[in-house]
Amino acid sequence: MAKYGKKSQDTVEEAMHKMKRGKLKSGKSNKTVKSRKQAIAIGLSEARKKGAKVPKKASSTRKKSTSTRSKSKK
Fold first, then answer.
1. Residue 67 · residue 40 · CB < 8 Å
2. Strand partners, 31
3. What global pTM score does this model have?
4. Is residue 31 in some structural domain?
5. How far is residue 8's CA from residue 48's CA, in Å, rounded to a whole number?
6. What's the structural domain count of the chain?
């Protein structure tokens, strides 16, 4: 079974096209996107908003550091 739907492919393709033409802007800063990876990320984000079949965004969870030191007994 495919991870991404046709609708999401079209959205990413559209974002890449805009990026190549220098028309793709990023979020609040409104700067021109020059990175291929960033263009793909923007395309996938837009596809999610449209309701296309796209896997969930990978969460950036931090590992909790567990202390292996035992507490000293008195």
1. no
2. 26
3. 0.71
4. yes
5. 8
6. 1
22 band by pLDDT with thresholds 50, 70 and 90? very high
Instruction: Name the residue with tokens 């950036």.
Output: 60
**Is the Cβ–Cβ distance between 44 and 8 less than 8 Å?**
yes
- What secondary structure does DSSP assign to 13-32, as a single string? HHHHHHHHHT--EETTTTEE
Q: Please, are residues 33 and 45 in contact by the beta-carbon 8 Å criterion?
A: no
CA distance 73 to 33: 58
Helix runs in the chain, H state only: 6-21, 36-50
**Residue 62 domain flag:** no
The range of the structural domain enclosing residue 37 comes to 6-50
> Rounded mean pLDDT of the chain?
86
What percentage of the chain carries pLDDT values higher than 70?
Answer: 81
